[in-house]
Amino acid sequence: MSGNLSLDLIALEANRNIPARNYWRDRLAGLEWERYFDRIPGTGVAGDDNYSVYTAKGPAPVLEQLNALAATDKARHIVLMTALGVLTRQCSSTADICIFTPLYGQPPSPVLNTVIPVRINNFIGKSFSGLLMSVKGDLMLDFKYANYPVEKILGTKAGELKDLPVIGMMLEEIQLISAFDRLSPAMIFSFSVQSSVTLHVRYRPAIFDEECIVQLVRLYFDLLDKLIGNKGEKIEDIETVPQRDKNIILNEFNDTAAFYPKQDTIISLFERQAEKTPDNIAVICDTKRLSYKELRERSVRVASWLQEEKGIKAGDNCRRYSFCRCSRTCGAINKNFTRTTTAHLILRWAVLL
Q1: Is the dihedral of CA 146, 151, 152, 156 positive or negative?
Q2: Predicted TM-score of the model (pTM)
Q3: Is residue 12 over pLDDT 50?
Q4: Mean predicted lDDT score pLDDT of the chain
Q5: pLDDT tens-digit map of 257-310
Q6: Three-state SS for 205?
Q7: Domain covering 30-253 in this structure, CATH number
Q8: Closest CA to 33 of 146, 155, 131, 189
Q9: DSSP letters spanning 78-109
Q10: For the chain, what are the domain ranges?
Q11: Residues 40, 204: contact at Cβ < 8 Å?
């Protein structure tokens, strides 16, 4: 009898978690884990798990602006985290950001040791006020389903959690640093908003250089001031980066130079990525998204139309149609097109289909 009761309880718990499982599956679909500031050279010893801490206080007007915009600690947390999302996007050229943060609570509440991923990827066309509302709505749902184990949320085993490239963020007045113990964040932005906006950046010196951390913190406070002061304007229209720091972002944090295999075409690389991650998001335009699988299928339909309806074949002059896909490869028909131009045309036609 006790055995049946145990099985029933397990089944009940599994059923209770189905909504949470489905929520997180959809919430994180297509997200690729990466180190957003991985170009910052570290000076420590590889494999060193110890943290260094850099502390800085924001200018006095920043606290005044923050308190005028956000009346509670929870609201301030959302403002500070959203600004961190904007900074991360600017420094990494990645429009799909994930920041880990603990649940709200007061000791001895057990939820204080729960941490969840917060995905921020809807920057396009948003003002800072609009982005704040979007993040707030997402965060409320994230917290609602936070009872689901973090290793299941991330689709990993418990022992693999510390291998994920994680950035953490917290507000010390309502969250605990111990919530990050199960993870191994490369960097944690820990804020306090008592008499000033104080930022403690806990970082791994084996990964990050202190001089760059100092620059990153200065960039953050400059950005926070601009975002709050111009909260009604579109973020992309705000001059958020001082001229002196543009070189840092463009040539240091945003150094994305990588080896390009000359024997491959853009299309062959696209095909390879579609095979590798078919369900990941390939295209985002306003509220519309296409996975690699969907984009690949659309390109096949465009190519079939060109071949079957227009009689296009490899070698034809196809200036009007831009490209032709023959069999399983796409090749430029107009010999004046560069490889990159051809790829852009292929994707544009497929998206518009």
Answers
A1: positive
A2: 0.67
A3: no
A4: 77
A5: 555 555 566 677 777 777 777 777 777 665 677 788 888 888 778 777 777 777
A6: coil
A7: 3.30.559.30
A8: 155
A9: HHHHHHHHHHHHHHHT-S-EEEEEEPP--TT-
A10: 30-253, 266-352
A11: no
